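Observation: inputs received (chain + flavin mononucleotide).
Thought: call the complex predictor directly.
Action: predict_structure
Action Input:
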Amino acid sequence: MVYSIVYVSSSSGLLADEELESIISKSRLNNSEKDITGVLLYCNGNIIQVLEGAEETVMDTFRRILRDHRHTQVTRLFAGMVPDRSFQKWSMGYSTMTSKDMGELKAAFPAIDNPHKRDLTGKTLSLIKNFYINNHRN
Ligand SMILES: Cc1cc2nc3c(=O)[nH]c(=O)nc-3n(C[C@H](O)[C@H](O)[C@H](O)COP(=O)(O)O)c2cc1C
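Observation:
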């Protein structure tokens, strides 16, 4: 079993490529040391991130992410134990999304727009995993 958090947030203004790269490279460095894996998807100021690993370590990292002023409206959609890692190969996978992709993900998963419809079953994870496996380039 592994602990997993999925959240959405809005960047404080559109993030430039360099800012995103610096967030991702720092995340990869820190996460590898802490045996955290996951993915970050970005589209025009919308962020979706999955973190997975030991509960304490993931919570600790999430608390740091929460305090980061580069994004706001951090909304947790899923937090709990799941049977396996979805992103075991990635200390932090990264992909941009087109608005169309984002629209499809939102249509399939209303909680992205509406936190009251949180998906506590982990369906979010498989949707995000499928999206990432089909779209990532690195
Ligand atoms: C959208 C977003 C996602 C982030 N994801 C991670 C992450 O997965 N792991 C991580 O260590 N830091 C992540 N950060 C950075 C943290 O907020 C924080 O700046 C960093 O962990 C500080 O690391 P340091 O204490 O080693 O300097 C993220 C920041 C943002 C804005």
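Thought: report the result.
Final Answer: The longest strand covers residues 71-82. Residues 17-34 form the longest helix (18 residues).
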